[in-house]
């Protein structure tokens, strides 16, 4: 039945959104998107977070790529790295780091966003799937221990360096 399938799909989407909101709610850092709340009193469920007027880094680089000077690119890398270091110190593995998931605030700061694939890791924890998690762009390379985030950071570096 199409209605049952749609209902199940809506439940899964809501569960995923709640997971993402929960993870975001744990962190306050200048280079991680700030979670403000969730509106779930009626559909659709809405996650309320910090507004980043500059949009995503990928779109910014596509639009301004050749005009972006080396100093600005280095700042993007530094700020994104600071956000990722913070997350890893807090035992959060992002698992989908990409320029499209780095937002630019109204003051020009890079903010790590999109925690939909993120996982919280306790010491010695194994997630039960062979310790791997596939992101859409890096299927099979993203490790639960955070090494996949490092590989994805290299992809962001490549995007910025163009």
Automatic annotation (TrEMBL):
Matching Gene3D superfamilies: Transferase(Phosphotransferase) domain 1 (1.10.510.10)
InterPro entries: Kinase-like_dom_sf, Non-receptor_tyrosine_kinases, Prot_kinase_dom, Ser-Thr/Tyr_kinase_cat_dom, Tyr_kinase_AS, Tyr_kinase_cat_dom
SUPFAM superfamilies membership: Protein kinase-like (PK-like)
A GO molecular-function annotation: protein tyrosine kinase activity
PROSITE patterns per record: PROTEIN_KINASE_DOM (PS50011), PROTEIN_KINASE_TYR (PS00109)
Keywords from the UniProt entry: ATP-binding, Nucleotide-binding
Segments forming domain Protein kinase: 1-162
Superkingdom as given in the UniProt entry: Eukaryota
Classification via Pfam families: PK_Tyr_Ser-Thr (PF07714)
Protein name: Protein kinase domain-containing protein
């Amino acid at each position: 039945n199409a209605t049952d399938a749609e209902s199940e799909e809506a439940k899964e989407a809501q569960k995923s959104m709640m997971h993402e909101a929960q993870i975001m709610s744990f962190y306050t850092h200048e280079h991680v998107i700030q979670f403000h709340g969730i509106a779930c009193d009626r559909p659709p469920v809405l996650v309320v977070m910090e507004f980043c007027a500059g949009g995503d880094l990928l779109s910014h680089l596509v639009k301004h790529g050749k005009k972006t000077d080396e100093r600005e690119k280095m700042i993007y890398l530094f700020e994104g790295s600071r956000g990722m270091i913070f997350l890893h110190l807090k035992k959060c593995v992002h698992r989908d780091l990409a320029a499209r998931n780095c937002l630019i605030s109204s003051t020009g700061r890079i903010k790590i966003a999109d925690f939909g694939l993120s996982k919280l890791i306790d010491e010695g924890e194994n997630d039960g799937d062979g310790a791997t998690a596939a992101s859409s762009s890096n299927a099979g390379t993203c490790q639960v221990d955070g090494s996949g985030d490092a590989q994805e950071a290299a992809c962001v570096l490549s995007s910025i360096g163009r």
